[in-house]
User: Which sequence fits this backbone?
């Protein structure tokens, strides 16, 4: 039998297993309940016939009838009414001490009746009792109760009985009800077993176990061959999968499977992701001393998220690749801007020469040499955000036309992922600071006219500095320098620094101004990430 069962398909094995277990449990539970109810029904009938016998024996009419020695129609009518009130009661009979029957519910019995000696105990003064005997109607359950006369002596007895055939009929009725319930429950169990098998098949996406095993082995090979470390945790935060690169990040001998991900990886935001369903991408962290870039993605969608997938990348490798890509793009954008500006300069020089303004052409060429290819390359190396790099190169060209040297501090470092604020806000800040410095130096008659820009972006925050060799800011002007519309350069100005103040306040940053009249000014914008504040 077992070998045949093993040869069946998985679906049939599961179906037969579920149905067999369900059927056994149903039969067992209903059998126990049936046994209890049948016995309870028999006990109820015994209690009924015993109670009726006791009640009839205590009736004054019955006592008077036995004391007088003659049957009484009124007593018979009262006993008939008593019998009619109890459908489960089949016979009530009244006997005197000489076994002369004074009353019987069927009215067919008269004279002396042989009770097989079962009445001797009650006539001898025994208490009420119940026996199983054979009468004219077959096997019966009989309850005996003595009738005590007015003189205190036993004058007869009452027998109340229920036919065993009636009791068996009651048991068959209960059995038929239970059989119907069993049939219905078996049909329901059959449907549930079939539905469970279909649900399991749907959960397995129609695959057989052998196919799932092969698929798992292929996927396991692929995941272990990846360079990224991959951890999968369930709804309780327990790690249920870890590929080989992820295992290599933990100390030797430490098994991540079955461990809480919060203990293995304190920087995880798995619980937050399970609640919100939003992934967390490109988060800087460390694990066992390894600097990593972590991305955590929910497995599934709300409200049916099954867990969290954690992808761990070596930070050095990611940053190296990012530097290469960002540097190439920044260099390309810079070259495009440089080419555009170079053509514009050639056109300006051509215009000076054609109009005979040779000296102006010489001055323009001299100023243009302030922006060298080396400065362009340095800018592209330091500023890896192409929008910011292109802006700064354009400002360099514009400043050079005015005889102003604009350079980027060599220790500057700016990558998009490290910026605290939006790239557009950073472009606005840098553009307004540089334009303000260029306008200041353009109106200055100092021999040295230089601007130095510094952008320092890291995981802790972002610092932007803009230093010029201008005339400095007088104290009265410094107090109102960020007011909207305030400017020392004429009407319709005074918007740039006010916009700078708005962005800094919105991003939670700080502005400091270091200025000295006749020497120059340095603006410093500081933005600190919330977790480092």
Assistant:
């Amino acid at each position: 039998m077992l070998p045949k069962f093993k040869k069946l398909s998985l679906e049939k094995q599961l179906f037969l297993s579920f149905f067999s277990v369900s059927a056994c449990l149903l039969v067992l539970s209903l059998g126990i309940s049936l046994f209890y109810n049948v016995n309870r029904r028999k006990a109820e009938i015994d209690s009924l016939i015993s109670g009726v016998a006791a009640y009839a024996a205590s009736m004054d009419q019955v006592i008077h009838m036995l004391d007088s020695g003659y049957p009484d129609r009124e007593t018979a009518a009262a006993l008939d009414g008593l019998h009619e009130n109890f459908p489960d009661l089949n016979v009530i009979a009244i006997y005197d001490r000489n076994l002369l029957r004074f009353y019987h519910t069927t009215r067919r019995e008269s004279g002396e009746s042989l009770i097989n000696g079962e009445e001797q105990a009650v006539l001898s003064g025994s208490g009420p009792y119940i026996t199983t005997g054979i009468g004219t109607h077959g096997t019966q359950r009989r309850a005996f109760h003595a009738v005590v006369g007015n003189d205190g002596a036993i004058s007869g007895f009452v027998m109340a009985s229920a036919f065993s055939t009636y009791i068996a009929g009651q048991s068959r009725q209960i059995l038929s009800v239970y059989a119907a319930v069993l049939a219905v429950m078996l049909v329901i169990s059959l449907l549930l077993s079939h539905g469970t098998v279909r649900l399991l098949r749907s959960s397995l996406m129609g695959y057989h176990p052998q196919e799932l095993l092969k698929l798992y082995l292929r996927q396991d090979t692929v995941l272990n061959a990846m360079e990224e470390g991959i951890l999968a945790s369930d709804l309780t935060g327990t790690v249920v999968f870890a590929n080989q690169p992820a295992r290599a990040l933990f100390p030797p001998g430490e098994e991540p499977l079955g461990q809480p991900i919060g203990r293995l990886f304190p920087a995880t935001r798995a619980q937050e992701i399970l609640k919100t369903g939003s992934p967390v991408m490109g988060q800087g962290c460390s694990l066992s001393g390894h600097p990593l870039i972590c991305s955590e993605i929910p497995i599934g969608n709300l409200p049916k998220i099954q867990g969290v997938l954690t992808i761990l990348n070596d930070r050095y490798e990611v940053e190296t690749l990012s530097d290469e890509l960002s540097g190439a793009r920044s260099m390309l954008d810079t070259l495009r801007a440089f080419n555009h500006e170079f053509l514009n300069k050639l056109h300006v020089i051509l215009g000076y020469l054609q109009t005979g303004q040779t000296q102006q052409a010489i001055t323009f060429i001299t100023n243009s040499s302030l922006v060298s290819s080396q400065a362009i390359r340095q800018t592209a190396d330091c500023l890896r955000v192409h929008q910011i790099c292109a802006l700064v190169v354009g400002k360099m060209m514009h400043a050079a036309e005015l005889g102003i040297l604009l350079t980027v501090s060599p220790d500057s470092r700016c990558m998009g992922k490290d910026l605290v604020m939006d790239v557009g806000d950073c472009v606005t800040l840098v553009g307004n600071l540089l334009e303000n410095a260029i306008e200041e130096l353009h109106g200055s008659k100092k021999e040295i006219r230089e601007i130095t820009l510094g952008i320092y972006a890291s995981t802790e925050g972002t610092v932007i500095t803009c230093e010029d060799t201008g005339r400095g800011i007088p104290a009265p002007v410094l107090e109102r320098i960020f007011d909207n519309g305030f400017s020392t350069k004429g009407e319709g100005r005074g918007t740039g620094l006010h916009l700078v103040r708005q962005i800094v306040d919105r991003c939670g940053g700080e502005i400091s101004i270091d200025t000295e009249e006749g020497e120059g000014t340095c603006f410093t914008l500081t933005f600190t990430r919330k977790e480092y504040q």
